[in-house]
Amino acid sequence: MATERSAKVTWQGSLMEGSGEIQEVPSGAFGPLQISWPARAEDEHGGKTSPEELIAAAHAACFAMALAHGLAEAGHPPERLQTSATVTFVPGTGITRSALTVVGTVPGIDEAAFLEAAGQAEEGCPVSGALKGNVELTLDARLAS
Amino acid sequence: MPRIERHADVNWEGTNARGAGRIDAGTGAFSGLDYSLPVRIGKGTEGKTSPEELLAAAHAACFAMSVAGELRDDDARIHVTANGVMDEVPGQGHQIVESQLRVRVRANVDRSSFREAVKSADEGCPFSALIKASAKVSIDAELEG
């Protein structure tokens, strides 16, 4: 069955001088969030989110679920997975990279099996599927020591 | 060319089916967002977000900026709603198959220039470029007033 999710944005003015707002999302989980071009395209974000940060949040979240699923299927349900995604934006070129990391606390698993499960989750999660083809995806996975 | 990086962190505990995760944005614009499988595939009104909702917010924000960049109008008012559709694809599991954009604009521009601006935004929006390798992007755009 298809699942749909939506979000609304209002922008006022030009790209460089104007600003926008991501309205409270239908789930009520976040928003309103302010956005602007300088906050997106310069290192100094001023506490504002951007499309790239939202993609990073979506990717890290999707990857964590896919890996939790794969590990449980393989008989090694995780206690804890700490994931992150870092998305690179090159103004004028586009979104070029999403770098995933995971540190897993998974009882009884060896490192090779964990790395294999992480690789499959990176391949198979729906957000990876959506990004794949036009963006470099990387993965750095390890078990918590 | 500057390379701008944005990241997000996720802490997931437990299996895919019974566990839950928490999402934090690197900028601090949002934090402590809870999510889980039942919420992700449910109606989306439980006060919790999902990867797909975050992607919809990213696409709406990105496309609004691209339209603003084309219009170059300090008085423009741009509304964008992005609706992302995730569905099961035979042999590929769940995939994001479509992002539907609804665009409503008030600006000092004639209809043919507006159509051109939307077309250029469609070609130039970095998020659209990303997902076009795997999903359909549809646009319903109207100039108001």
Task: List descriptors.
heterodimer, A: alpha+beta, GMP Synthetase, Chain A, domain 3, 2 domains, 3-stranded antiparallel beta sheet, 3-stranded mixed beta sheet, 4 helices, 33% helix, B: 145 residues, alpha+beta, 32% helix, globular
Task: Tell me briefly what this model is.
The complex is a heterodimer of chains A (145) and B (145). Chain A has helices at residues 37-41, 51-73, 111-124, 126-131, and strands spanning 3-12, 19-22, 33-35, 80-90, 94-105, 136-143. Chain A has 145 residues and is α+β, with helices and mostly antiparallel strands.
Q: What can you tell me about this protein's structure?
A:
The complex is a heterodimer of chains A (145) and B (145). The mean pLDDT of chain A is 96. The relative contact order of chain A is 0.14. Chain A folds into two domains: 9-41, no CATH class; 51-143, GMP Synthetase, Chain A, domain 3, CATH 3.30.300. In chain A, helix 2 crosses helix 3. In chain A, strand 4 (80-90) and strand 5 (94-105) form a beta hairpin. Chain A has helices spanning 37-41, 51-73, 111-124, 126-131; strands at 3-12, 19-22, 33-35, 80-90, 94-105, 136-143. Chain A is of the alpha+beta class and 145 residues long. Chain A has four helices and six strands; from the N terminus they run E-E-E-H-H-E-E-H-H-E. Chain B has 145 residues and is of the alpha+beta class. Chain B has helices at 37-41, 51-71, 111-124, 126-131, and strands at 4-13, 20-25, 33-35, 77-89, 93-106, 136-143. In chain B, 32% of the residues lie in helices and 37% in strands. The mean pLDDT of chain B is 95. In chain B, strand 2 and strand 3 form a beta hairpin. In chain B, the strands form two sheets. In chain B, strands 1-2-3 form a three-stranded antiparallel β-sheet. Chain B folds into two domains: 8-41, no CATH class; 51-143, 2-Layer Sandwich (GMP Synthetase, Chain A, domain 3), CATH 3.30.300.20. The chains are: A alpha+beta (145), B alpha+beta (145). Chains A and B meet through strand 1, strand 3, helix 1, helix 2 and strand 4 of A and strand 1, strand 2, strand 3, helix 1 and helix 2 of B. Strand 1 (3-12) of chain A pairs antiparallel with strand 4 (77-89) of chain B, so a sheet runs across the interface.
